[in-house]
Amino acid sequence: MELRISHLSKTYANGVRALDDVSLAIPQGMFGLLGPNGAGKSTLMRTLATLQEPDSGSVTLGDVDVLRDKDAVRRTLGYLPQEFGVYPKVTAEELLDHFAVLKGITGRRERKETVKALLEQTNLYEVRKKKLGGFSGGMRQRFGIAVALLGNPRLIIVDEPTAGLDPAERVRFLNLLSELGENAVVILSTHIVEDVSELCQRMAIIDRGRILLEAEPLSAIESVQGKVWKKIIDREEVPAYEAEHRMISTRLFAGRTVIHVHSAERPDPTFDPVDASLEDVYFITMAGLHAHEVSLSGAEAAS
Amino acid sequence: MTGRFLEVACFELRYYLRRVSTWIYFGIFFAVAFFFMNALGGAWESVTIPVGGSDGNVKVNSPYVVSVLTGVLGVFGVLVTAALLGNSVYRDFETGIHTLFFTSPVSRFSYLGGRFTGALVVAAVVFASIPLGLLVGSVMPYLDADRLGPFRLMVFVQPYLVLVLPNLLFTGAIFFALAAVTRQMLPNHVGGVMLLVAYLLSSNLTQDLENERVAALLDPFGLDALSLVTKYWTPVERNALLPQLEGMLLWNRLLWIGVGLGIFAVCYARFRFSHVAPEWTRRKRAAEPELVVRPAHARPARLALPEARRSFGFGAHLQQYLSMTRRSFRGIVANRYFAAIVGAGLLFLVIGATEMGKMYGTSTWPVTYQVLEILSGFFALFMLIVITFYAGELVWRERDVRLSQVHDATPVPTWVPFASKLTALALVVAVLQAVILLAGMLTQAAKGYTRFEPRLYVETLFGLQLADYLLLCALVMLVQVLVNNKYLGHLLVVLYFVFSMFMDQFGLEHRLYRYGSDAGYQYSDMNRHGPYLAPFLWFKLYWAGWALLFAVLSNLFWVRGEETGAAWRARIARLRFRRPALMATGVAVLLVLGLGGFIFYNTNVLNDYRTGKDRERTAAAYERLYKRFEGIPQPRVVGVRVAVDIFPERRDVDVRGTYRLRNKTRVPIDSLHLRIPREVEIRRLALSRPAIRVLSDRGRGYHIYRLAAPLQPGDSLRLEFDLALDSKGFENRVDNLEVVENGTFFNSGALPSLGYDPNAEIPDDNTRKKHGLRPKERMPRVDDPRGPMNTYISRDADWVDFEATISTSPDQIAIAPGYLQREWTRNGRRYFHYRMDAPILNFYSFLSARYAVRKDRWRGPDGREVSIEVYHHPGHPYNVDRMIYAVKKSLDYFTRSFGPYQHRQVRILEFPRYASFAQSFPNTIPYSEAIGFIARVADEDDIDYPFYVTAHEVAHQWWAHQVIGGNVQGSTLMAETLSQYSALMVMEKEYGRAQMRKFLEYELDNYLTGRTTERKKEMPLLLVENQPYIHYNKGSVVMYALRDHIGEERLNAALARYLRDKRFQEPPYTSSVEFLGYLREATPDSLQYVLTDMFERITLYDNRAKAAASRRLPDGRYEVVLDVEAQKFVADSLGNERPVPMRDLVDVGVFGAAPKGKDREEGPVLYLAKHRIGAGPQRIRVVVPRPPASAGVDPYHKLVDRHGDDNVVEVKDGGD
């Protein structure tokens, strides 16, 4: 099963172009959607989750037309929105059971088993009788996962799932996701590069509604390998370097500034080679430096 | 500090003033106010909305009308106050930005105070739209200039200052504080409901005079206080005076501002700059321990989920529907605020039940229909709020907790969430109905009434009423779905309620276009659901078709997902409009068309559908066409012989009969003019002499026959008629309540009458003007020479012989005036033959019902016997003995004081409560089940009004059926005032003077309030123009005082003399002027002024006791020095008063200590005598034997005094 998005565009009433001719092919497995805040990730995710209507374009999941046959999509969908709340006065078990019914698990015994298994998997079994109002952000997030996983979905959409999770919970959560990716299409949107590099076989970078890059993380890293250089400088020097080099990022390290620049050759001997990471790919792409080049190689890899 | 305060306030101000919703609120209130003022001012010819007498002498831009309008619109403003003030702090919590504010160096005072002030100013600006709308509305050039007084700016400003701003201050404080401390909006809504309960309670309490002041205090919006302060304002005063902050209105305002500030203070003290809301109770904190979670790595290694079978068929959808319904329902019910709402409702029910059906302060037995009517009637407003509010909550439930995206992405068909929410709402209503049921039965049990009627409870609460509420739920849900903004939705629903109240006034009278309506409904113990039930069900089924349509629409436009723009929603709706929606629409349209057609067939084809306008037009045409025939010589009815067949099951009546007519004039009569009501089907009309029909205008009910040979003076002829009063199908508004399954009661009005009937003309001058007719006098002047030629109740007969054969179903008894000659059964029908042995007025009635009969007899001092019979509903035995007793006492007193009774029988007949009066026909008194049959005269203090009503009606056998005035001003004085006086005397003999004082307090109050809404002219009693507040209420007060002045013996002797001279007289009939002559004759010269003041003028007093002090005299007695001030006024017909010289005999009384809880003048009388009192201040000294507690002038309110509460003061002990 493959999710195909072609020429999807969406402009909001206030004129914001949230999606601009987006086309993607997403196979089974984990797919990372990377982009800054406001890039259009959530709009795309909500569109895939049948909650929003694009102005034009089409989406198919296998042979299902996602935009038309929403019911069919919803039957195979697990969706964890970026932000969600719960009824504070209801227990985890009750609400999960309720959602199980909504997802079509109508047999009482089966539902009970499913709910129990999911609560165990998400490590909420012990607090199943507690009111959701008392849950921490992480627990709530895990509860959201449990809801998303009800009914063995084939299409799982998780929007910024790791925001607000503590490091241990994040690891746990990502593990869970990677297991799901073994037999479903899992789309993970995030603005945290590590989430993608650790998990995803494929990824796309989106900004201002446009797909800047669609690639496998490894080959994307490969494509910039040897072209990223770093140097430690003083902060006052940054503008000078910026004017002279294609600077892709700056960061502080021990009170001084580390800059990364993009260049086919070592700019000068004071620069050191960098073992390129996905983060460099991201910044290079975002800076619009050689998106074209990279996306071409990405497209090849996808075909 | 103040700088920050101001900064916060200004920020708040700017925030709200930039929001569109603020200006939408402003616009809506402006528009509504503008609209009302225009409607009142006659902007639309068809719209008449009377407020505070604005359809009569009160101008629409008068202070009184503007105050009432401003106050009422202000109450609706609570919705906006809740939204503005409640959201002021709440929105910080909702968005989570509160942590930023709380960590900034703004003090709690600046933050709360600033926000509060800012929001308050915004609300004040919004509400300025009300006076502004009224003001602008009142200066529109197209208004009817006659209805407007001079423009005065203060008229609009004052109510805003006195009513709106204080209400805003305290409701605002409450809403603001509640939301700030609880960090929720829900408590606000509960707070709003509580305020409403207080308002309802207080308006409920005003029915009892004794509670008036409490009620005025209790009403949080000050409307009851306003009406108490302005209670006795005459039209002139209503037009001139601005309501001032004084008296009860001031106390009310102070009290409620105090309450608001108190709540604000408590909340201020409670408010913390903390991240989470402080707990109100300790218990709750203990219940929520910190959650303990296993460390993350303890998770099983592999993800293993059981493969659950899933289904997506209808069965699954059903299960989903049930699950969602359960969730939604529990979400509402398992909430302490819901409990608070129910609690408030119960409290209201309990208190409401104590005031049940009070008349003269006496309550009734809690029969089921009455309990149901009172409880669910007052609860209805509550229910509207609950439905309006929770519909919004339900529609927004998922979105409010930000769970909607998860919900919306589940494989659930879109109809499921909508249907389950609608069901949950219906269940909530059902729960509340069950609460009413419980409260009702408990009320009955608590009052010692055990004739429970569970079936009636269930039929009413879960049948009729629930159907109404379900229809409403569907509409309100649709509004919420379409508008997609909770608060705007609430406001629109409220506007809809207001609009639907006034639809009739717009001429939108047909029930087919008023959503959820029916042809009316009223339960009667006698006739149960009666003729209302069938149309009710048909109409509700028809509306159910609409509701289904609404449901389909709601489904199509149900917001699922993030697309909330109108264009997208329309597009999605088109996509959703597939087979099931199409089919449901088809069914709905079929229902609407099919049932609508059926209803239309019933209301407009089988029946004669006519709007109020139609009726007006007919009346106008009648007058224009036939007025010229008024007063032409016509023969008079001298004998009536009728055969009436009543078919209760079919609700049909056949009337066949013969009038004997005689030419009593001195000229030959060449044609006969007949009036027959349009509703009556004429099968045959025939004259015993050759005649040709020259006009038959059935629509306006006018028929003319020309006699071949004129009827010579003294000659007779017979008119034979065969008429049918059939009911066919059902009407738009159930109108025919005279012929019913059990409890038929109709009178001679349905039969032909002779000549032009001026009573069929449009009485109201404003309406007449619209139809180009000149203003009309209410009655001919007392000196009109033609007036005395007829009695005031008949224009075609004097005294007639009467005979009737009347048949009905075998289980019913049928009654007409006269004595039963024979009773028989034929063809399964029961026949009764009645005949009168003496001539009667041409005024008779026919009744038929399943009766229980109680018989008794009264023997006069001369040995003459009168049989007494009470025909009553078997379930209403409570006061039958009391009535019989009252008949006996009345016969005693009246035969002794006035003269003999002309009949051998007095019959009282109960009829259904579709009308609530008792009416005296010859030897026959139909008596509504609503007044007296279920009265509960529990203790000695209660006014025994069944006794009073009975005595009054028996008195009419003398006053009206023996002596009757001509058709001129003042004639109802001899009928109603004298019956009232007669009943008072019988009552006083039975219950003593203290009870009379209580009764007369109501009479005086009714008179003084009655004159405030006079539409034409207040007349002096002598010239009363059939004005009930004068001939009944003022009449009682006047006659009782006159009795006090000249003595019972002398007064009764004058009445007896008058009766003897005038009884059964032929035309010209007597007049009130003639009657007053008899009184003058019996009154000493020194008291003649009393007659002038009481009968010929409108006289008012302002007597007050200023101070009283006592001194112990050496002989052990006490001297009381009483300072009084007095003034007498004469008022004109509009209430303009002018002081007049006074030297009147007025009671001065000194009293000992009154029993606890009683008024001062209820204490033991130490001194009571009439003194000559002049105008202005004066000092009176009297000596009393025992220590005085209070003293005063006119302590028993025998004179008409608008300030009765300042007549008696406490006596200060001045020592020796």
Task: Please write out the topology.
The complex is a heterodimer of chains A (about 300) and B (about 1200).
Chain A: E1 3-11, E2 17-26, E3 29-34, H1 41-48, E4 56-61, E5 64-65, H2 70-75, E6 77-80, H3 92-102, H4 108-121, H5 137-149, E7 155-159, H6 167-180, E8 185-190, H7 193-199, E9 202-207, E10 210-215, H8 217-224, E11 228-233, H9 238-244, E12 247-253, E13 256-262, E14 272-273, H10 278-286, H11 291-302
Parallel strand pairs in A: 3-8, 3-9, 6-7, 7-8
Antiparallel strand pairs in A: 1-2, 1-4, 4-5, 9-10, 11-13, 11-14, 12-13
Chain B: H1 2-18, H2 20-40, H3 63-76, H4 78-95, H5 98-102, H6 108-127, H7 129-138, H8 153-182, H9 186-205, H10 212-218, H11 223-229, H12 235-240, H13 247-270, H14 282-287, H15 314-333, H16 336-354, H17 368-395, H18 397-400, H19 404-408, H20 415-446, H21 454-483, H22 486-501, H23 533-557, H24 566-576, H25 579-606, H26 612-626, E1 636-647, E2 652-662, E3 669-675, E4 681-687, E5 691-697, E6 702-711, E7 716-725, E8 744-747, E9 753-754, H27 765-770, E10 797-808, E11 813-815, E12 819-826, E13 829-835, E14 840-841, E15 845-849, E16 852-859, E17 865-872, H28 880-897, E18 905-911, E19 924-928, H29 945-956, H30 971-1010, H31 1028-1046, H32 1048-1062, H33 1072-1082, H34 1088-1096, E20 1098-1101, E21 1104-1112, E22 1118-1126, E23 1128-1131, E24 1137-1140, E25 1143-1151, E26 1165-1174, E27 1176-1184, E28 1190-1193, E29 1208-1213
Considering the chains and any ligands shown, give keywords for the structure.
heterodimer; A: 303 residues; six-stranded mixed beta sheet; four-stranded antiparallel beta sheet; disordered C terminus; B: 1216 residues; alpha+beta; eight-stranded mixed beta sheet; seven-stranded mixed beta sheet; 47% helix; 17% strand
What does this entry look like structurally?
The complex is a heterodimer of chains A (303) and B (1216). Chain A is 36% helix and 27% strand. Chain A contains eleven helices and 14 strands. Chain A has helices at 41-48, 70-75, 92-102, 108-121, 137-149, 167-180, 193-199, 217-224, 238-244, 278-286, 291-302; strands at residues 3-11, 17-26, 29-34, 56-61, 64-65, 77-80, 155-159, 185-190, 202-207, 210-215, 228-233, 247-253, 256-262, 272-273. In chain A, the strands form three sheets. Chain A has a six-stranded mixed beta sheet with strand order 6-7-8-3-9-10, with helices on both faces. In chain A, strands 2-1-4-5 form a four-stranded antiparallel beta sheet. In chain A, strands 12-13-11-14 form a four-stranded antiparallel beta sheet, with helices on both faces. The two termini of chain A are 15 Å apart. The relative contact order of chain A is 0.14. Chain B is built from 34 helices and 29 strands. In chain B, strands 1, 2, 4, 7, 10, 12, 13 and 14 form an eight-stranded mixed beta sheet that branches. Chain B has a seven-stranded mixed beta sheet with strand order 26-25-28-29-21-22-27, with no helix packed on it. In chain B, a hairpin with a 5-residue loop joins strand 16 and strand 17 (865-872). The longest helix of chain B has 40 residues, at 971-1010. At the A-B interface, helix 2, strand 6, helix 3, helix 4 and helix 5 of A face helix 15, helix 19 and helix 24 of B.
